[in-house]
Amino acid sequence: MPNSMSEQLQQDMECEGLFDCFHGLKELDTECFQVLVDAEEPLTIDEIAEGVERERSTAYRAVQRLLQTGIIQKEQVNYDHGGYYHVYSQTGSVEITRDMRRMLNEWYAKMGQLIQEFETKYEQHDAVAQSVEG
């Protein structure tokens, strides 16, 4: 992933690259998300691991990262005679995009504030330098 903003603007990105950009997700995380998107019903960790052809523990770590970002959700399914297991599904695309827009707006406001601080700081420096020269 490019480091500077100008590099990012010049790079060709696909919409799936937004997960990396917004949440710092790894390729495996995106693969697990895609398995859930393609599924017709919620999946267990074992089913996700099979879908990405990885060990259960590796898929579990990726699913935990996805849960932390809110991109997927976990549901508990109870057995009739006691016990339970978890299944995972994609969070609605409207919720995901709303969250990314919120984060983008917060980032934009933060950058605007930093640019204003930069301008104020160096405007004062420019004024002092001009008065010394004049």
TrEMBL record:
Q: Which residues form the Transcription regulator TrmB N-terminal domain?
A: 23-88
State the InterPro entries in the record: Tscrpt_reg_TrmB_N (IPR002831), WH-like_DNA-bd_sf (IPR036388), WH_DNA-bd_sf (IPR036390)
Q: What is this protein called?
A: Predicted transcriptional regulator
